[in-house]
Design goal:
mainly alpha
Length: 169
Protein backbone atom coordinates (compact mmCIF):
# COMPACT_ATOMS: atom_id res chain seq x y z
CA UNK A 1 0.00 0.00 0.00
CA UNK A 2 1.36 3.42 -0.89
CA UNK A 3 2.35 5.62 2.05
CA UNK A 4 -0.28 8.23 1.17
CA UNK A 5 -2.95 5.53 1.54
CA UNK A 6 -1.94 4.35 5.02
CA UNK A 7 -3.85 7.05 6.92
CA UNK A 8 -7.18 6.78 5.09
CA UNK A 9 -6.99 2.98 5.29
CA UNK A 10 -6.16 3.12 9.02
CA UNK A 11 -9.01 5.53 9.75
CA UNK A 12 -11.52 3.66 7.61
CA UNK A 13 -10.62 0.21 8.95
CA UNK A 14 -10.93 1.16 12.60
CA UNK A 15 -14.03 3.29 12.10
CA UNK A 16 -15.70 0.38 10.34
CA UNK A 17 -14.64 -2.06 13.08
CA UNK A 18 -16.04 0.27 15.74
CA UNK A 19 -19.36 0.63 13.90
CA UNK A 20 -19.62 -3.12 13.39
CA UNK A 21 -18.56 -4.36 16.82
CA UNK A 22 -19.56 -1.61 19.26
CA UNK A 23 -23.31 -1.11 18.80
CA UNK A 24 -25.21 0.90 21.43
CA UNK A 25 -27.07 -2.12 22.81
CA UNK A 26 -24.08 -4.13 24.10
CA UNK A 27 -24.26 -5.46 27.64
CA UNK A 28 -21.38 -4.45 29.95
CA UNK A 29 -19.48 -7.72 29.62
CA UNK A 30 -19.61 -7.72 25.82
CA UNK A 31 -18.80 -4.01 25.72
CA UNK A 32 -15.66 -4.51 27.81
CA UNK A 33 -14.49 -7.48 25.76
CA UNK A 34 -15.18 -5.73 22.44
CA UNK A 35 -13.48 -2.51 23.57
CA UNK A 36 -10.43 -4.52 24.64
CA UNK A 37 -10.25 -6.20 21.23
CA UNK A 38 -10.75 -2.90 19.39
CA UNK A 39 -8.02 -1.16 21.42
CA UNK A 40 -5.64 -4.06 20.82
CA UNK A 41 -6.40 -3.96 17.09
CA UNK A 42 -5.70 -0.21 16.99
CA UNK A 43 -2.38 -0.65 18.78
CA UNK A 44 -1.28 -3.61 16.65
CA UNK A 45 -2.06 -1.76 13.43
CA UNK A 46 -0.28 1.33 14.71
CA UNK A 47 2.79 -0.78 15.51
CA UNK A 48 2.69 -2.48 12.11
CA UNK A 49 2.54 0.89 10.38
CA UNK A 50 5.31 2.35 12.58
CA UNK A 51 8.15 -0.11 12.17
CA UNK A 52 10.38 -0.51 9.10
CA UNK A 53 10.03 -4.31 8.96
CA UNK A 54 6.58 -5.24 10.27
CA UNK A 55 6.86 -8.74 8.83
CA UNK A 56 9.39 -9.49 11.58
CA UNK A 57 6.55 -9.15 14.10
CA UNK A 58 4.12 -11.48 12.33
CA UNK A 59 4.89 -14.54 14.47
CA UNK A 60 5.33 -12.62 17.71
CA UNK A 61 2.90 -13.63 20.43
CA UNK A 62 2.72 -10.36 22.32
CA UNK A 63 0.26 -10.08 25.17
CA UNK A 64 -1.88 -6.98 25.50
CA UNK A 65 0.37 -5.29 28.08
CA UNK A 66 3.38 -5.86 25.79
CA UNK A 67 1.52 -4.43 22.79
CA UNK A 68 0.57 -1.42 24.94
CA UNK A 69 4.20 -0.87 25.98
CA UNK A 70 5.47 -1.18 22.41
CA UNK A 71 2.83 1.18 21.00
CA UNK A 72 3.63 3.69 23.72
CA UNK A 73 7.38 3.40 23.05
CA UNK A 74 6.84 4.08 19.34
CA UNK A 75 5.03 7.33 20.06
CA UNK A 76 7.03 10.55 20.16
CA UNK A 77 7.28 12.57 23.37
CA UNK A 78 3.75 13.75 23.94
CA UNK A 79 4.32 17.50 24.25
CA UNK A 80 0.98 19.29 24.09
CA UNK A 81 -0.85 15.94 24.22
CA UNK A 82 0.88 14.86 27.47
CA UNK A 83 -2.24 14.93 29.67
CA UNK A 84 -4.39 13.24 27.05
CA UNK A 85 -1.80 10.51 26.50
CA UNK A 86 -1.45 9.79 30.20
CA UNK A 87 -5.22 9.36 30.42
CA UNK A 88 -5.33 7.26 27.24
CA UNK A 89 -2.54 4.87 28.32
CA UNK A 90 -3.95 4.67 31.86
CA UNK A 91 -7.44 3.82 30.63
CA UNK A 92 -6.04 1.17 28.26
CA UNK A 93 -4.09 -0.40 31.13
CA UNK A 94 -7.18 -0.38 33.37
CA UNK A 95 -9.30 -1.82 30.57
CA UNK A 96 -6.85 -4.71 30.29
CA UNK A 97 -7.01 -5.30 34.05
CA UNK A 98 -10.81 -5.17 33.92
CA UNK A 99 -10.97 -7.61 31.03
CA UNK A 100 -8.51 -9.95 32.77
CA UNK A 101 -10.54 -9.86 35.99
CA UNK A 102 -13.60 -10.90 33.96
CA UNK A 103 -12.00 -13.40 31.60
CA UNK A 104 -9.71 -15.33 33.93
CA UNK A 105 -12.09 -16.04 36.77
CA UNK A 106 -15.18 -18.21 36.66
CA UNK A 107 -16.82 -16.04 39.31
CA UNK A 108 -15.13 -12.65 39.14
CA UNK A 109 -14.98 -10.55 42.28
CA UNK A 110 -17.69 -7.89 41.80
CA UNK A 111 -15.76 -5.36 43.90
CA UNK A 112 -12.68 -5.82 41.72
CA UNK A 113 -14.79 -5.34 38.58
CA UNK A 114 -16.47 -2.20 39.94
CA UNK A 115 -13.12 -0.85 41.13
CA UNK A 116 -11.64 -1.16 37.61
CA UNK A 117 -14.74 0.40 36.03
CA UNK A 118 -14.57 3.30 38.49
CA UNK A 119 -10.83 3.74 37.81
CA UNK A 120 -11.56 4.08 34.08
CA UNK A 121 -14.36 6.59 34.61
CA UNK A 122 -12.30 8.61 37.10
CA UNK A 123 -9.26 8.70 34.80
CA UNK A 124 -11.25 9.99 31.85
CA UNK A 125 -13.07 12.54 33.96
CA UNK A 126 -9.88 13.97 35.48
CA UNK A 127 -8.95 15.09 31.96
CA UNK A 128 -12.26 15.82 30.34
CA UNK A 129 -14.35 17.28 33.12
CA UNK A 130 -18.01 16.59 33.67
CA UNK A 131 -19.35 15.92 30.18
CA UNK A 132 -22.40 13.71 30.65
CA UNK A 133 -21.30 11.32 27.87
CA UNK A 134 -18.18 10.27 29.76
CA UNK A 135 -19.84 9.63 33.10
CA UNK A 136 -20.61 6.09 31.96
CA UNK A 137 -18.23 3.23 31.27
CA UNK A 138 -19.45 3.11 27.67
CA UNK A 139 -18.75 6.81 27.18
CA UNK A 140 -15.25 6.36 28.59
CA UNK A 141 -14.53 3.40 26.32
CA UNK A 142 -15.78 5.40 23.33
CA UNK A 143 -13.51 8.24 24.44
CA UNK A 144 -10.55 5.84 24.63
CA UNK A 145 -11.20 4.38 21.19
CA UNK A 146 -11.67 7.80 19.61
CA UNK A 147 -8.69 9.41 21.35
CA UNK A 148 -6.38 6.51 20.59
CA UNK A 149 -7.46 6.32 16.95
CA UNK A 150 -7.01 10.07 16.47
CA UNK A 151 -3.66 10.13 18.28
CA UNK A 152 -2.28 7.23 16.24
CA UNK A 153 -3.46 8.90 13.03
CA UNK A 154 -1.61 12.08 13.98
CA UNK A 155 1.56 10.16 14.85
CA UNK A 156 1.42 8.13 11.62
CA UNK A 157 0.98 11.34 9.64
CA UNK A 158 3.95 12.89 11.40
CA UNK A 159 6.05 9.76 10.77
CA UNK A 160 5.07 9.75 7.11
CA UNK A 161 5.93 13.43 6.67
CA UNK A 162 9.22 13.20 8.58
CA UNK A 163 8.06 15.57 11.32
CA UNK A 164 8.85 13.11 14.10
CA UNK A 165 12.43 12.58 12.93
CA UNK A 166 12.98 16.33 12.81
CA UNK A 167 11.46 16.86 16.25
CA UNK A 168 13.64 14.14 17.83
CA UNK A 169 16.96 15.54 16.56
Amino acid sequence: MAEDQVLPAFMTKHGDLFDKHFPPDLDDESMILKAHLLVESLMRDFITNSVPQPERLMDAKFQFHQVLSLARALCPPNGKFEDLCEVMWGVAKNLNQLRNAMAHELEPNPQKIESRKRAIIDLVNTREGSDERIQSLRGCLEFLLGAMGAFFQIVLYQMDSGQILEANR
